[in-house]
Amino acid sequence: MKILVINGPNLNMLGIREPDIYGKNTYDDLCALITDYANIKGVEVKIFQSNHEGALVDEIQSAYKNFDGIVINPAAYTHTSVAILDAVKSVGIPTVEVHISAVETREDFRQISYVRKACIKTITGLGFDGYLRAIDTLIDNGK
Ligand code: DQA
What we know:
Blueprint: E1 2-7, H1 19-22, H2 27-41, E2 44-49, H3 53-62, E3 69-73, H4 82-91, E4 95-99, E5 121-124, H5 129-142
Parallel strand pairs: 1-2, 1-3, 3-4, 4-5
Protein backbone atom coordinates (compact mmCIF):
# COMPACT_ATOMS: atom_id res chain seq x y z
CA MET A 1 0.00 0.00 0.00
CA LYS A 2 1.23 3.48 -0.89
CA ILE A 3 0.18 6.47 1.19
CA LEU A 4 0.75 10.14 0.38
CA VAL A 5 0.92 12.50 3.36
CA ILE A 6 0.24 16.12 2.44
CA ASN A 7 0.90 19.04 4.77
CA GLY A 8 -0.21 22.59 4.11
CA PRO A 9 1.19 26.00 4.99
CA ASN A 10 3.23 26.71 8.10
CA LEU A 11 3.40 23.08 9.18
CA ASN A 12 7.09 23.24 8.26
CA MET A 13 7.30 25.70 11.18
CA LEU A 14 6.26 23.10 13.75
CA GLY A 15 8.36 23.39 16.89
CA ILE A 16 8.67 27.14 16.32
CA ARG A 17 5.07 28.21 15.65
CA GLU A 18 2.69 28.51 18.61
CA PRO A 19 4.21 25.64 20.64
CA ASP A 20 1.41 25.96 23.21
CA ILE A 21 -1.00 24.82 20.47
CA TYR A 22 1.12 22.62 18.20
CA GLY A 23 3.80 21.36 20.61
CA LYS A 24 7.57 21.69 20.71
CA ASN A 25 8.42 18.91 18.31
CA THR A 26 9.63 19.92 14.86
CA TYR A 27 8.45 19.15 11.33
CA ASP A 28 11.44 16.81 10.94
CA ASP A 29 10.28 14.99 14.08
CA LEU A 30 6.83 14.62 12.52
CA CYS A 31 8.30 13.23 9.28
CA ALA A 32 10.48 10.75 11.21
CA LEU A 33 7.48 9.61 13.27
CA ILE A 34 5.40 9.00 10.15
CA THR A 35 8.22 7.27 8.26
CA ASP A 36 9.07 4.96 11.17
CA TYR A 37 5.42 4.03 11.66
CA ALA A 38 4.93 3.36 7.95
CA ASN A 39 7.96 1.05 8.03
CA ILE A 40 6.53 -0.87 10.99
CA LYS A 41 3.19 -1.20 9.19
CA GLY A 42 4.80 -2.20 5.90
CA VAL A 43 3.36 0.68 3.88
CA GLU A 44 5.20 2.96 1.50
CA VAL A 45 4.88 6.60 2.39
CA LYS A 46 5.71 9.90 0.70
CA ILE A 47 5.50 13.12 2.70
CA PHE A 48 4.94 16.45 0.94
CA GLN A 49 4.68 19.95 2.39
CA SER A 50 3.96 23.25 0.66
CA ASN A 51 2.87 26.74 1.58
CA HIS A 52 1.22 27.10 -1.85
CA GLU A 53 -2.36 26.07 -2.56
CA GLY A 54 -1.70 25.24 -6.22
CA ALA A 55 1.29 23.07 -5.32
CA LEU A 56 -0.94 21.10 -2.95
CA VAL A 57 -3.52 20.67 -5.73
CA ASP A 58 -0.75 19.52 -8.12
CA GLU A 59 0.47 16.96 -5.58
CA ILE A 60 -3.04 15.57 -5.01
CA GLN A 61 -3.55 15.26 -8.78
CA SER A 62 -0.20 13.50 -9.18
CA ALA A 63 -1.37 10.86 -6.69
CA TYR A 64 -3.94 9.61 -9.21
CA LYS A 65 -3.15 5.93 -9.99
CA ASN A 66 0.06 6.25 -7.94
CA PHE A 67 -1.19 6.13 -4.34
CA ASP A 68 -3.82 4.06 -2.51
CA GLY A 69 -4.51 6.57 0.24
CA ILE A 70 -3.96 10.19 1.21
CA VAL A 71 -3.47 11.71 4.66
CA ILE A 72 -4.02 15.45 4.41
CA ASN A 73 -3.57 18.33 6.81
CA PRO A 74 -4.36 21.32 4.60
CA ALA A 75 -3.66 23.63 7.59
CA ALA A 76 -5.18 27.09 6.97
CA TYR A 77 -6.39 26.00 3.51
CA THR A 78 -8.76 23.61 5.30
CA HIS A 79 -10.95 26.59 6.01
CA THR A 80 -10.78 28.29 2.61
CA SER A 81 -9.92 25.94 -0.23
CA VAL A 82 -12.57 24.63 -2.59
CA ALA A 83 -9.67 23.82 -4.96
CA ILE A 84 -8.23 21.28 -2.52
CA LEU A 85 -11.69 19.76 -1.96
CA ASP A 86 -12.18 19.45 -5.72
CA ALA A 87 -8.72 17.91 -6.17
CA VAL A 88 -9.42 15.20 -3.59
CA LYS A 89 -12.80 14.52 -5.21
CA SER A 90 -11.14 14.41 -8.65
CA VAL A 91 -8.66 11.65 -7.82
CA GLY A 92 -11.16 9.55 -5.85
CA ILE A 93 -8.46 8.22 -3.51
CA PRO A 94 -9.54 7.40 0.09
CA THR A 95 -8.42 10.41 2.11
CA VAL A 96 -8.22 11.14 5.83
CA GLU A 97 -8.19 14.71 7.16
CA VAL A 98 -5.86 15.36 10.10
CA HIS A 99 -5.42 18.34 12.40
CA ILE A 100 -2.83 18.44 15.15
CA SER A 101 -4.96 20.75 17.28
CA ALA A 102 -8.58 20.31 18.31
CA VAL A 103 -9.90 22.69 15.67
CA GLU A 104 -13.46 22.22 16.92
CA THR A 105 -12.56 24.01 20.17
CA ARG A 106 -10.85 26.96 18.44
CA GLU A 107 -11.97 30.10 16.57
CA ASP A 108 -15.17 30.25 14.54
CA PHE A 109 -13.26 30.55 11.28
CA ARG A 110 -11.69 27.13 11.94
CA GLN A 111 -15.12 25.45 12.17
CA ILE A 112 -15.46 25.17 8.40
CA SER A 113 -13.57 22.43 6.59
CA TYR A 114 -14.06 22.21 2.85
CA VAL A 115 -11.92 19.10 2.35
CA ARG A 116 -13.87 17.18 5.03
CA LYS A 117 -16.69 16.59 2.53
CA ALA A 118 -14.35 14.39 0.47
CA CYS A 119 -12.72 12.53 3.39
CA ILE A 120 -13.55 9.13 4.85
CA LYS A 121 -12.55 10.34 8.34
CA THR A 122 -11.38 13.41 10.24
CA ILE A 123 -8.93 13.18 13.15
CA THR A 124 -8.33 16.23 15.35
CA GLY A 125 -6.60 17.07 18.58
CA LEU A 126 -4.32 14.04 18.88
CA GLY A 127 -1.12 15.94 18.12
CA PHE A 128 1.32 14.16 15.80
CA ASP A 129 -0.29 10.80 16.65
CA GLY A 130 -3.26 11.84 14.53
CA TYR A 131 -1.18 11.09 11.43
CA LEU A 132 -0.53 7.56 12.67
CA ARG A 133 -4.21 6.98 13.37
CA ALA A 134 -4.94 8.24 9.85
CA ILE A 135 -2.53 5.66 8.42
CA ASP A 136 -4.31 2.98 10.50
CA THR A 137 -7.64 4.16 9.07
CA LEU A 138 -6.36 3.86 5.49
CA ILE A 139 -4.90 0.39 6.13
CA ASP A 140 -8.20 -0.81 7.66
CA ASN A 141 -10.15 0.78 4.83
CA GLY A 142 -8.03 -1.09 2.27
CA LYS A 143 -8.65 -4.53 3.82
C1 DQA B 1 -4.15 22.90 11.75
C2 DQA B 1 -5.34 23.75 12.21
C3 DQA B 1 -5.58 24.90 11.25
O1 DQA B 1 -6.68 25.67 11.68
C4 DQA B 1 -4.36 25.79 11.20
O2 DQA B 1 -4.55 26.83 10.24
C5 DQA B 1 -3.09 25.05 10.95
C6 DQA B 1 -2.90 23.74 11.56
C7 DQA B 1 -3.82 21.78 12.75
O3 DQA B 1 -3.09 20.87 12.36
O4 DQA B 1 -4.26 21.82 13.91
O5 DQA B 1 -2.18 25.57 10.31
O6 DQA B 1 -4.50 22.28 10.52
